[in-house]
Amino acid sequence: MLADVKPPFIPEGASGMTILVEWPPGDPGTPPHRHSGPCFGYVIEGAVRFELEGEPERVVKAGETFWEPGGDVIHYQDGNALSDAPTKFVVTMLCEPGQPMLTFVDEEELKQRAPRRAPRPTA
User: Fold this and answer.
1) Total domain count for the chain?
2) With contact defined as beta carbons under 8 Å apart, do 49 and 75 qualify?
3) Is 120 among the domain residues?
4) How far apart are CA 65 and CA 72, in angstroms?
5) How far is CA 72 from each of CA 60, 63, 119, rounded to the nearest angstrom?
6) By three-state DSSP, how is residue 49 classified?
7) Is residue 63 domain-resident?
8) What is the pLDDT of residues 89-104, one digit of tens each?
9) 58 in a structural domain
10) What CATH number should be reported for the domain holding residue 41?
11) What predicted TM-score, i.e. pTM, was given to this entire model?
12) Is 79's pLDDT higher than 80?
């Protein structure tokens, strides 16, 4: 068993989509975004810098899993945590019918929701 989670909701009539993501060394990943349904991932190689709204940033290493609830929650980071090696992971997303799999969050909304973001790591 790699993960056992109960998502808070699954959109009615959801479709599933599985993608392979490959980031070169140091790639920042996808800008802040959200998904219409829950997502479940597995890191094949490397390490993913992962941050969801309200949770501290963390690094998910090869052989580990991650998930996000989807819906209104902002996914701030999913980039390569390694500056000297590529990272590869697989994600299965349950998408709400008629909605995009991924929606970017604009700067204005990021400012409005800033208090919901966990404190940033200090250097």
Assistant:
1) 1
2) no
3) no
4) 21
5) 22, 28, 19
6) strand
7) yes
8) 999 999 999 888 899 9
9) yes
10) 2.60.120.10
11) 0.90
12) yes
| CA dist., res. 61 & res. 83, Å (int) | 14
Asked if residue 122 has pLDDT above 70, the reply is no
As a whole-number percent, the residues of the chain with pLDDT over 90 amount to 80
Any residues with CB less than 8 A from the CB of 90 and at least 6 apart, and which? Answer: 18, 19, 20, 21, 41, 42, 44
Q: How far apart are CA 18 and CA 39, in angstroms?
A: 9
CB atoms within 10 A of CB 60: 20
Angle at 61 between CA 56 and CA 81, to 5 degrees: 65
Domain range for 88 is 33-114
Q: Considering the domain boundaries, does residue 3 fall inside one? A: no
CA nearest 33: which of 83, 78, 80, 2?
78
Q: What is the pLDDT of residues 52-75, one digit of tens each?
A: 999 999 999 999 999 999 999 999
